[in-house]
Write a structure and sequence with these properties.
CATH class of chain A: Mainly Alpha
Largest sheet of chain A: none
Helix content of chain C: 40-55%
Order of helices and strands of chain A: HHHHHHHH
Strand content of chain A: under 5%
CATH superfamily of chain A: MetI-like
Number of strands of chain A: 0
CATH class of the largest domain in chain C: Alpha Beta
Largest sheet of chain C: 6 strands, mixed
Number of domains of chain C: 2
Number of domains of chain A: 1
Shape of chain C: globular
Number of strands of chain C: 13
Order of helices and strands of chain C: EEEHEEHEHHHHHEHEHEEHHHHEHEEH
Shape of chain A: elongated
Distance between the termini of chain A: 59 Å
CATH topology of the largest domain in chain C: Rossmann fold
Oligomer: heterotrimer
Mean pLDDT of chain C: 86
Number of helices of chain C: 15
Helix content of chain A: over 70%
Chain lengths: 225, 303, 327
């Protein structure tokens, strides 16, 4: 057993820097994609709540993207954007869209109509209703969507190794190429760890930014107060 | 609560910082050295990188483990400054010619002439060895079946299982071209294997014939036999660096520095270096550094 | 205060929700819009603050055509309380109440003051309830907050759509009474929608009865109950008319002229007093409870005389008789 730990120690000493680098690159790929996805998806989701017919169409399109096999999507980006991080980020971005768009949309849609009717009747402008009522009430669901997307990103980002995007995926692929199991784990385990860590951090964030008064009973704003 | 929220925001900002740092690293190097996804490429790339860092005092970004067909595309787009390649690959796979038995010097001369015109890229001096595709089998099986050359395989296409890496299965200087040239193919379609897995797979009998790279140290150690290319299908694959012309212009001493390696690496040496990494599990950068120091090209304390 | 002139509302599919409505709501009065589902009562109410736009006709509020006004500004001048209340779950009670004042950019301390005052008015202790969240309130408490919220910016007009509908009868009764109390303290024009004829009779100064979008009758409760304008109204009142009639007549109307003694007799406890405005039903109730033959009548603090039980019973009988005759 101690041979194992010895081996692990020396492995980490040797490869530690590489692993940390790969981890950092992985964070970069994930955050870049998530950043862009959030900036686009949340407004789109919110706008869709006001678009009577477009909503089904757009949700449908984004949903279809989700069904594309991830390796295929990443690969498809290469002719367009060249090999490297850009291709990976583009693919991650597309994958991150659906959960966020859908949750932004349903978050607002599922608000008890009495609430929005009253808000309107009290003389709030459409913008005021959006920012003072609909958004705060949807934050928990939107954050849940962000969490889902982030975990997806960390996972799919491992495919970046195939197209020269760096990240932990690269370690995994080298390990496969060279039949070096240790490398495969060196890539896979931190990837899992990263996914769990980010998920946890975001769940804390979700809790923190849920408006007070909605914590106990997350369902209360959603139809049927 | 407020504290907790602030803390959360701080964490997110830190993550963003990490992301930005790693995202912009590529831009911070002066030169980018690339390498394909097998050991030899990484070793050669490391040699180039370390030479540049030590002698030219420039920052080098490394992009190794790239899928075989990516570097030529990336270097044209400026994502790489240089990478090691092989004349035969340049001649057949990239320039799309058919090899007809010309001697190695001619192949080298051809690519040396055409690359600047076509791609604004230059081939530097040959490093001193060739790393060719080959068809390779277990020595003992080859003896048993009386197979010495590739043509001999024709009688045994029904009994043998081939295992090739994806690039070989795709390239014109690979399996498709070979089938055309020699006029036979394996009855059972070849399995697709990662380059690093081929050698062991052959040794252990999972597959019988592989497209071993001739400088791989494992051929010797695993008791594998390279079959003679009797019909001269495979072109010569002399190794040399391919560099962007603008990089050469920007850093006038780059050419000289990289050419220090010209002719210094023979086949045996390359095999030894490959083996050290593949089987002895040493790190490519250490192996490269050791070689450079031995050759007196690096100051010993160039850490 | 509010005037409907030839107002129509037709929804897509040729659904005629409101047909040729002509109605006037006087300042300070509580007008009840009474009818079954689909009678157009809610639609009518929602046209006043332009949540629904009329297809034809004009609605004027405080003399101005509402089409000429910015709907947002219009709505901020009107209180709005509905059956499902619609409290904002992410805001505290105080926050909810303060919504319109904040929209109107009142000073924070003025808002805080107003919030406390309103909580008090609706019978909720400010200190306990100000910072609570809707999820922590009972149905009745939520309704009270809803009312407080509607009154927050002191709007001249208040629109209420079955505001007490989601409550159990006892709570509803209590809230109705409290609201009537409240009403007497504040001067507001109230448009009140309900399908409950008892509620209508209790809460309204006048009742406008609607059927399938058309106005059937508009009259004070007593008149509506005793002189229904047509078959529909008659049927709507149905078997309840006797009780309703008793409800719409007050003690004051049957109190015989008496010499008011100079001084009120030794102050009987409030439970044994008849209010001048109390309905005959209430009076019967009190006689039964106290078992007395006479009860004093007060209007507020003012002593108005004694009512004898026999006189009451006679009056009740007379009502029955009248109703019987008209059949």
């Amino acid at each position: 057993m101690s041979a194992f730990w010895q081996g692990l120690k020396s492995f980490l000493q040797e490869r530690g820097g590489e692993i940390l680098n790969a981890l950092g690159e992985h964070v970069y790929l994930t955050m870049a994609a998530m950043g862009m996805a959030i900036v686009l998806a949340v407004p789109v989701g919110l706008i869709l709540t006001r678009a009577k017919r477009a909503d089904k169409v757009v949700l449908g399109i984004v949903g279809v993207i989700q069904t594309l096999p991830s390796l295929a999507l990443v690969g498809l980006m290469v002719p367009l954007l060249g090999a490297g991080p850009k291709a990976a980020i583009a693919a991650l971005f597309l994958y991150a869209l659906l959960p966020i768009v859908r949750n932004s949309y349903t978050g607002v849609r599922n608000i008890d109509p009495a609430i929005t009717e009253t808000a309107r009747a009290m003389g709030m402008t459409s913008r005021e209703i959006l920012f003072r009522v609909e958004l705060p009430l949807s934050v928990p669901i939107i954050m849940a969507g962000v969490r889902t997307s982030t975990v997806i990103c960390v996972g799919v980002a491992t495919l970046g190794g195939v197209v020269g995007a760096g990240g932990l995926g690269e370690l995994i692929w080298i390990g496969i190429d060279r039949a070096e199991d240790a490398l495969i784990f060196a890539g896979a385990l931190p990837a899992m760890g990263l996914a769990l860590l980010l998920d946890w951090v975001l769940s804390v964030g979700e809790w923190l930014f849920t408006p007070a008064g909605m914590r106990e009973d997350k369902g209360s704003a959603q139809a049927g107060a | 609560m407020k504290m907790a929220r602030i803390l959360f925001v701080v964490v997110v900002v830190v993550l963003i910082g990490v992301a930005v740092y790693f995202g912009t690293r590529g831009q911070r190097g002066d030169l980018v050295v690339g390498g394909k996804n097998f050991t030899e490429q990484t070793i050669l790339g490391e040699m180039a990188a370390q030479l540049i860092e030590d002698r030219l005092d420039l920052r080098v970004t490394r992009k190794f483990h790239l899928q075989t067909n990516l570097p030529i595309k990336m270097i044209q787009r400026g994502e790489l400054s240089l990478y090691p390649d092989y004349t035969g690959t340049g001649y057949t796979d990239i320039l799309d010619n058919t090899y007809q038995g010309e001697p190695p010097e001619e192949i080298y001369a051809h690519v040396k002439r055409v690359y600047p015109e076509e791609f604004d890229l230059e081939w530097l001096k040959p490093l001193g060895f060739e790393n060719a595709y080959s068809l390779t089998m277990r020595a003992e099986q080859a003896e048993e079946l009386g197979i010495e050359k590739i043509s001999d395989l024709e009688e045994h296409t029904d009994a043998l299982q081939a295992g090739f890496d994806p690039a070989f299965l795709d390239r014109q200087d690979g399996y498709p071209g070979l089938v055309e040239h020699y006029g036979f193919e394996f009855e059972t379609p070849p399995k697709q294997l990662a380059i690093g897995l081929m050698y062991r797979a052959c040794k252990e009998g999972e597959v019988d014939v592989i497209d071993a790279f001739t400088t791989d140290g494992r051929i010797d150690k695993f008791n594998l036999k390279i079959l003679e290319d009797d019909k001269r299908f495979f072109p010569p694959y002399d190794a040399a660096f391919v560099v962007r012309q603008d990089a050469l212009e920007k850093y006038p001493e780059l050419r000289e520095t990289l050419n220090l390696l010209a002719g210094r690496i023979d086949t045996k040496s390359m095999q030894r270096l490959n083996y050290a990494v593949d089987e002895e599990k040493r790190r490519e950068e250490d192996v490269a550094r050791e070689f450079l120091v031995d050759q007196g090209l690096l100051s010993a304390q160039g850490e | 205060m509010i005037r409907f002139e030839e107002v129509w509302k037709v929804f897509p599919g040729d659904v005629q929700a409101v047909c040729d409505l002509n109605l006037e709501v006087a300042e300070g009065e509580t007008l009840v819009l009474l009818g079954t589902s689909g009678s157009g009562k809610t639609t009518t109410m929602k046209m006043v603050n332009r949540l629904i736009e009329p297809t034809r006709g004009t609605i004027t509020v405080q003399g101005r055509d509402i089409q000429q006004e910015n709907p947002i500004k219009l709505r901020r001048r009107m209180g709005y309380a509905i059956q499902h209340i619609g409290l904002f779950p992410h805001m505290s009670v105080g926050g909810n109440i303060g919504v319109v004042p904040r929209l109107l950019k009142w000073q924070p301390d003025k808002i805080a003051e107003r919030v406390d005052k309103l909580l008090d008015m609706v019978g909720l202790d400010p200190d306990s309830f100000r910072d609570r969240y809707p999820a922590q309130l009972s149905g009745g408490q939520k309704q009270r907050v809803g009312v407080a919220r509607a009154l927050a910016a002191d709007p001249p007009i208040v629109l209420m759509d079955e505001p007490f509908g989601a409550l159990d009868p006892i709570t509803r009764d209590g809230l109705q009474n409290e609201f009537l109390e409240l009403e007497s303290e504040i001067q507001k024009t109230i448009l009140f929608v309900t399908h409950d004829v008892f509620e209508a009779v209790k809460m309204g100064d006048r009742i406008a009865m609607l059927d399938e979008g058309r106005l059937q009758q508009v009259a004070p409760p007593a008149e509506l109950v005793e002189k229904p304008a047509n078959e529909f109204v008659d049927q709507f009142l149905g078997q309840q008319r006797f009780q309703l009639s008793l409800l719409t007549r007050s003690v004051r109307t049957i109190l015989k002229e008496q010499e008011r003694p100079e001084q009120a007799p030794e102050g009987p406890p409030p439970e044994e007093r008849l209010g001048a405005r109390m309905s005959l039903v209430g009076a019967l109730d009190l006689f039964k409870k106290t078992g007395r033959g006479d009860l004093p009548v007060y209007r507020g603090k003012e002593y108005m005389g004694e009512l004898h039980k026999d006189d009451l019973l006679q009056a009740v009988g007379a009502v029955l008789g009248e109703l019987g005759e008209e059949r």
